[in-house]
Design goal:
mainly alpha; two-stranded parallel ribbon; 70% helix; globular
């Protein structure tokens, strides 16, 4: 009942938000048509006739204006259209909430100072904005897949919204390898949704999930999109981008019949490639996990300890959770228990907190 209630509330908030933004867009366009020269009106009419195919996707392209930096575009669009709070967006960027709030304020001021009209971009202008839109969709999916806070680990409405937008975008840009890569990534990740929590709502880690209950139709769709993404990269003589690489990582797990069959050496290599094209401390942390699985907890822990000095990760609960897991494998139980407890104190998602505290208690 609680999960159903939250899903309904998410849906109602999304409907209200989208209706409000659509009305604002319509009012703005009417105002412009009343005051601009005829040539601009003709251009605006042409832009409105461009069939992006979805009101929300159209608004996202509109908000992701190139006058802003990529990070500013993404943060502002997530705040205005993505249904995410400032706190949730800050978690996605691994930034303090105050820093993220300032970024959004500066983005609004930049748009105002540049006198940027709130207008729908033409089809030929979409390529210059698609990177920001992809990141917006990706972060909406991530918040749905692992909620920042609350009583539920998952927010299915956000997962569904991101998948819908990804499929629409793939139809709009079928030759963009990163669009296809993101769709592949989301389909494969979403295939595990039913197995990510147990009957009590507690998280179930990837290696312990019942793979027979994964959505194999979603996996097939994801793998097919990944093949198309890789074919487009090859045809255009381009290196794989971050979403295609992450989809390839997800595919390693999807193709493994059981956890023991996971190709950890390939996963380590893929994370190395991802760190080259999209460096971030979170990518480095995930690579450390893979190194620990491929070469043992000593090697993995050495990488995690080095990352612990990064201020960006000091309040990131999963750094301490990964460290705790590696310490536990090395039978350093007192340190592992303390690290699990610290990780629990840093998350505001109740199922995650309960899971981490249970793991700490199990080491007592």
């Amino acid at each position: 009942m609680t999960a159903a209630k939250h899903r309904a509330l998410d849906w109602l908030r999304q409907v209200a938000l989208h209706a409000k933004k659509h009305d604002e867009l319509g009012a703005d366009l009417e105002t412009q048509q009343a005051h601009v020269v005829p040539d601009f009106v003709d251009g605006l009419d042409a832009a409105r006739e461009d069939d992006i195919g979805d009101d929300l996707l159209r608004l996202m392209f509109t908000a992701c204006h190139p006058v802003l930096s990529l990070d500013a575009r993404v943060a502002l669009t997530l705040k205005l259209l993505g249904g995410l709070s400032t706190d949730e967006i800050a978690r996605a960027f691994v930034l303090p909430e105050s820093t993220l709030a300032q970024r959004i304020v500066r983005a609004k001021r930049t748009l105002t100072a540049a006198k940027v009209p709130f207008e729908v971009p033409r089809i030929k202008e979409l390529e210059g904005r698609v990177d920001a839109v992809l990141e917006v969709i990706y972060l909406i999916f991530n918040e749905g897949y692992s909620a920042t806070q609350g009583d539920d680990l998952l927010r299915p409405s956000l997962i569904g919204q991101a998948l819908r937008l990804g499929a629409l975008l793939a139809g709009l840009m079928p030759h963009n390898s990163e669009v296809l890569g993101l769709l592949a990534l989301m389909e494969i990740q979403a295939s595990r949704t039913a197995t990510r929590v147990d009957d009590n709502g507690a998280p179930v880690l990837l290696m312990a999930q019942d793979r027979s209950r994964w959505d194999h139709a979603a996996i097939e769709r994801g793998l097919a999109a990944l093949v198309r993404s890789e074919a487009q990269s090859a045809a255009q003589a381009q290196a794989r981008g971050p979403y295609a690489l992450q989809a390839a990582l997800a595919a390693c797990h999807a193709r493994a019949v059981n956890a023991a069959d996971t190709d950890w050496l390939r996963i380590v290599a893929l994370y190395g490639a991802l760190a080259q094209v999209a460096p971030s401390p979170v990518v480095d942390l995930n690579r450390a996990v893979a190194v620990g699985m491929a070469f043992g907890p000593v090697e993995g822990l050495a990488l995690v300890e080095a990352l612990a000095a990064d201020a960006a990760l000091s309040q990131y609960p999963w750094l301490h959770s990964v460290r705790a897991d590696l310490l536990a494998k090395l039978n350093r139980t007192t340190e592992a228990r303390a690290a699990f407890t610290l990780a629990a104190s840093l998350t505001r998602n109740e199922p995650e907190r309960g899971h981490l505290l249970a793991r700490a208690q199990a080491l007592s």
